[in-house]
């Protein structure tokens, strides 16, 4: 693991804060896309030597997380004609503050986890947990369905970073599994979005509370 | 048949019993499947009577074959004397009930309930037969569950009436609880004995913790079905809500299956500890006492009879417990008297309780109400039903010359011999149980005087049943069959010594070899002679009474015929101020029982709904007369209404607070996941 590897992980964590702090949905999606691009670069840096299989994983991640899903989301945003603001339950400052606490906690947790010795100093686990928690924060505090998808993306990105630990042990299987999982999730979200809109003529998940009982 | 016979083929009695089960299921399927117009009900009744007859013949053949264990088909089913003994009430009562159902149940416009009723009835009785034949745990459990579910549909037949669904749900809940305990019981048997076959266990298991658990699972699982206090909660509502012939089946046969299971499992254990028998005995005594006390407070004829089932199952458990205690102590007289009294009471209760339920059903059918205090004077309009009810009442009170006397006397004898045995804890327990049994007998007489007096004697209290009639032969014939069987057992108990002795030796399990003949300890001939003497004097008294009455009438007429007929108009001389008596002045059943209910209010928790004398009953300013006010009282169930309902209501209140967790917002649910994740990571 090199300095550039850790630098990319710091970038991933900073992008979490951008997602939490911005009031614009477009910026949210773009930040998630940029995070996807950084994640796509990460596998290349795990191995010193270039391996065609690692390259394939990297290219796949880049394409799906960096291009396909964000463009799908942007298209959805255009198509359904929603307002461009995020409309959070929790203010941006408070979100950023909680995100900071989450990142701190992630560093704390990472110290407590029983890891293999070669991963001890690296930022992989803290970055993964921080991204996971940020994803959860977006999921719980944003009301629009489309921002929920972004939150889910962040969550998956955290899982993906964690999967990097296993990349040397079982490289291919994990990654393909993660991508597939994500792909299915986005499709389901897309279908759910469409149905929510058809049913309530709005994409505000608050309206879903009417389904209670 | 010797055990050395190779290839355990189906023996004739077992084959007959299996044919009977098959006929019952065919009857159920045809009765449920065929349209009522296309003679579904008649076909059902005919097949059911046939199945009952085949079952009776099978049971008789098993007794004649006499073997301890008739060779069984592939080890899954078998027919021994104990099974045959339970087969008798199943077949007899099943047939009588089906016949009564043909007369009392009319399909009317909506044929659904009737078809469901016949289907469930046929399948339930078939499953009952299979339960007593089962020699393999899985066969037993499957048949048991079919029976339990069938009975659920039977109870819920008239689901559109108020209270029926509630009764059915209570029944279903307790049936499932029972099944849970039994599944645990048989799993434990498999684990300890290594086989699903119902075969005698190794000595020494009873003393282990597994043996203790085995006993409690059996007591709870079978006690729930048998309706032992305090597990009887399903019994009164279910019996009251079901159609009357179904109540007869439930009370006469279905709850006995709980007793059968208990006896069968106890017979598998070679060395039951003393506290097993003692517990069963104590539970039986408590059950008998609370059953009869609760019955005293009831206004509903069928609920009253249902509580008497609790009482009688208690008496049966008393006998079984005494027999088990005797096995531990090696006292053959206790075993013989206790078990024979208990098992004979199973048969007897299976005869006279259906008789009572069918006659009560006839009353309900003719008058349209189950409220005792709305009836009265039915003996004149329904003499056949009144005779049947009084016969059942005499039998259930344990009075000679009918059958209840014989079995209760055997239990008494067993208790007395235990008391005379002077072993310290046993004698004390038996003395208490004997006192309880005596009290139960007295209270039962009071209760049936109340029920019979209020329903059949006096004048009609309301317009319900002014036009009541006995009904056709289809209604009276089943009652006549059951009543005749009651009389037969009462007059000829010595005839039963053989079959009963064989059943007892099966129920006594491995310790049966040391038992002597039943006739050596049980004075069955004497009991029969007592019954004949009492029956004879009753008949004589009746004959003389009739003659005296006709003579008296002749005497009355003679002076009138002497001359001035116009001068003698019948008139009251002095009528205590009752110038214009109305039927409402009669003693009601509640007022008859009020003293006893008040005496036992510590157990019964009677509830009174008094008029509010400070408010509405006192005239408001400007009004001259008090407002109409009502008073009513009822005796709730000591377990269901006093303990369980408030407890469940409390649980529901607490649980309702948890509903706040369900906000309906996806974000909140995700927050729960989030918080859980953070907490897990923190504690890691």
Rg of chain B (C-alpha, Å): 28 Å
> Mean pLDDT score of chain A, rounded?
78
Order of the strands making up the biggest sheet of chain B: 1-2
Number of discrete helical segments of chain A: 7
Low-confidence parts of chain B: 1-8
Overall form of chain A:
globular
Q: What is the total tally of β strands of chain A?
A: 0
The level of helicity of chain B is: 55-70%
Alpha-carbon distance between the termini of chain A?
51 Å
Low-pLDDT ranges of chain A? none
Tell me the total number of β-strands of chain B: 4
SS-derived structural category of chain B: mainly alpha
Give a quick precis of the structure.
Chain A has seven helices and no strands. Chain A is mainly alpha-helical. Chain A has one domain.
3D structure, described in words:
The complex is a heterodimer of chains A (213) and B (684). Chain A has 213 residues and is mainly alpha-helical. Chain A has one domain. Helix content of chain A is 74%, strand content 0%. In chain B, the strands form two sheets. Chain B has a two-stranded antiparallel sheet. Chain B has a two-stranded antiparallel sheet with strand order 3-4. Chain B is globular and about 100 Å long. Chain B contains 24 helices and four strands. The chains are: A mainly alpha (213), B mainly alpha (684). At the A-B interface, α4 and α5 of A face α24 of B.
Give the arrangement of secondary structure elements.
The complex is a heterodimer of chains A (213) and B (684).
Chain A lengths: L2 H19 L3 H22 L5 H29 L11 H21 L11 H18 L3 H19 L7 H30 L13
Helix pairs in contact in A: 1-2, 1-4, 1-5, 2-3, 2-6, 3-7, 4-5, 5-6, 6-7
Chain B lengths: L11 H22 L6 H26 L3 E2 L8 E2 H24 L7 H22 L3 H19 L8 H30 L15 H18 L8 H7 L2 H25 L5 H23 L4 H29 L2 H36 L10 H4 L1 H14 L6 H19 L2 H33 L16 H19 L5 H11 L10 H4 L2 H39 L26 H11 L1 H4 L2 E3 L22 E3 L5 H18 L8 H18 L1
Antiparallel strand pairs in B: 1-2, 3-4
Helix pairs in contact in B: 1-2, 1-4, 2-3, 3-4, 3-9, 3-12, 3-17, 3-18, 4-5, 4-9, 5-6, 5-9, 6-7, 6-8, 7-9, 8-9, 8-11, 9-11, 9-12, 10-11, 10-16, 11-12, 11-15, 11-16, 12-14, 12-15, 12-17, 12-18, 14-16, 14-17, 15-16, 15-17
């Amino acid at each position: 693991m090199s300095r550039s590897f850790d630098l990319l992980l710091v970038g991933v964590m900073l992008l979490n804060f951008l997602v939490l702090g911005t009031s614009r949905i477009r910026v949210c999606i773009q930040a998630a896309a940029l995070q996807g691009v950084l994640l796509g670069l990460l596998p290349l840096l795990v191995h010193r030597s270039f391996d065609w299989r690692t390259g394939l994983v990297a290219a796949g991640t880049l394409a799906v997380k960096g291009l396909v899903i964000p463009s799908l989301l942007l298209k959805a945003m255009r198509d359904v004609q929603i307002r461009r603001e995020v409309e959070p339950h929790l203010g941006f400052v408070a979100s950023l503050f909680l995100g900071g606490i989450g990142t701190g906690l992630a560093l704390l947790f990472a110290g407590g986890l029983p890891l293999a010795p070669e991963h001890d100093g690296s930022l992989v686990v803290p970055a993964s947990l921080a991204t996971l928690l940020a994803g959860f924060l977006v999921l719980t505090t944003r009301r629009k369905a489309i921002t929920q998808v972004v939150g889910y993306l962040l969550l998956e990105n955290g899982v993906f970073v964690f999967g990097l630990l296993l990349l040397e042990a079982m490289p291919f299987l994990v990654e393909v599994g993660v991508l597939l999982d994500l792909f299915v999730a986005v499709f389901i979200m897309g279908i759910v979005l469409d149905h929510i809109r058809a049913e309530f003529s709005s994409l505000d998940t608050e309206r879903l509370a009417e389904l209670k009982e | 048949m010797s055990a050395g016979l190779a290839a355990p083929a189906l023996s004739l009695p077992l084959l007959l019993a299996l044919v009977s089960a098959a006929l019952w299921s065919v009857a159920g399927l045809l009765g449920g499947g065929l349209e009522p117009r296309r003679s579904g009900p008649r076909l059902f009744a005919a097949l059911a009577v046939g199945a009952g007859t085949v079952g009776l013949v099978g049971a008789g053949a098993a007794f004649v074959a006499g073997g301890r264990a008739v060779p069984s088909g592939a080890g899954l089913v078998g027919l021994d004397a104990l099974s045959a003994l339970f087969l008798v009430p199943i077949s007899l009562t099943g047939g009588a009930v089906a016949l009564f159902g043909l007369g009392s149940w009319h399909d009317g416009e909506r044929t659904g309930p009737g078809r469901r009723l016949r289907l469930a009835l046929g399948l339930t009785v078939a499953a009952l037969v299979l339960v007593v034949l089962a020699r393999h745990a899985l066969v037993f459990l499957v048949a048991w569950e079919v029976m339990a579910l069938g009975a659920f549909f039977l109870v819920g037949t008239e689901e559109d009436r108020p209270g029926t669904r509630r009764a059915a749900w209570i029944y279903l809940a307790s049936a499932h609880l029972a099944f849970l305990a039994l599944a645990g019981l048989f799993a434990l048997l498999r684990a300890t004995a290594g086989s699903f076959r119902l075969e005698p266990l190794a000595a020494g298991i009873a003393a282990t913790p597994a043996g203790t658990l085995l006993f409690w699972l059996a007591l709870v699982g079978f006690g729930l079905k048998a309706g032992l206090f305090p597990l009887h909660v399903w019994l009164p509502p279910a019996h009251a809500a079901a159609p009357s012939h179904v109540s007869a089946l439930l009370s006469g046969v279905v709850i006995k299956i709980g007793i059968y299971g208990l006896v069968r499992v106890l017979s598998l254990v070679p060395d039951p500890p003393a506290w097993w028998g003692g517990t069963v005995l104590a539970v039986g005594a408590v059950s008998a006492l609370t059953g009869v006390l609760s019955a005293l407070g009831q206004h509903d004829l069928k609920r009253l009879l249902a509580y008497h089932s609790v009482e009688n199952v208690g008496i049966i458990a008393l006998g079984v417990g005494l027999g088990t205690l005797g096995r531990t102590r090696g006292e053959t007289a206790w075993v013989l008297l206790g078990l024979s009294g208990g098992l004979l009471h199973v048969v007897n209760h299976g005869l006279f309780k259906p008789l009572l339920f069918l006659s009560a059903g006839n009353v309900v059918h003719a008058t349209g109400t189950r409220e005792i205090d709305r009836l009265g004077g039915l003996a004149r309009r329904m003499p056949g039903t009144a005779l049947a009810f009084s016969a059942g009442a005499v039998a259930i009170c344990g009075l000679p010359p009918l059958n209840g006397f014989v079995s209760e006397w055997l239990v008494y004898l067993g208790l007395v011999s235990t008391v005379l045995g002077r072993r310290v804890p046993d004698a004390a327990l038996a003395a208490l149980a004997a006192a309880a049994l005596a009290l139960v007998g007295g209270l039962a007489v009071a209760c049936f005087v109340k029920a019979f007096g209020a329903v059949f004697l006096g004048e009609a209290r309301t317009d319900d049943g002014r036009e009541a009639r006995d009904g056709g032969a289809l209604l009276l014939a089943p009652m006549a069959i059951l009543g005749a069987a009651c009389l037969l057992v009462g007059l000829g108990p010595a005839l039963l010594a053989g079959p009963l002795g064989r059943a007892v030796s099966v129920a006594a399990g491995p310790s049966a070899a040391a038992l002597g003949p039943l006739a050596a300890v049980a004075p069955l001939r004497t009991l029969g002679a007592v019954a004949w003497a009492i029956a004879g004097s009753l008949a004589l008294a009746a004959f003389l009474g009739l003659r005296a009455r006709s003579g008296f009438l002749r005497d009355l007429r003679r002076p009138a015929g002497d001359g001035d007929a116009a001068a003698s108009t019948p008139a009251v001389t002095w009528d205590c101020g009752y110038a214009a008596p109305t039927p409402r002045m009669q003693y009601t059943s509640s007022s008859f029982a009020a003293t006893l209910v008040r005496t036992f209010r510590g157990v019964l928790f009677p509830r009174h709904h008094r008029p509010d004398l400070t408010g509405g009953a006192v005239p408001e300013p400007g009004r001259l007369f008090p407002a109409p006010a009502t008073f009513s009282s009822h005796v709730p169930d000591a377990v269901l209404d006093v303990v369980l309902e408030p407890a469940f209501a409390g649980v529901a209140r607490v649980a309702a607070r948890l509903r706040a967790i369900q906000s309906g917002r996806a974000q909140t649910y995700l927050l729960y996941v989030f918080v859980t994740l953070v907490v897990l990571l923190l504690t890691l």
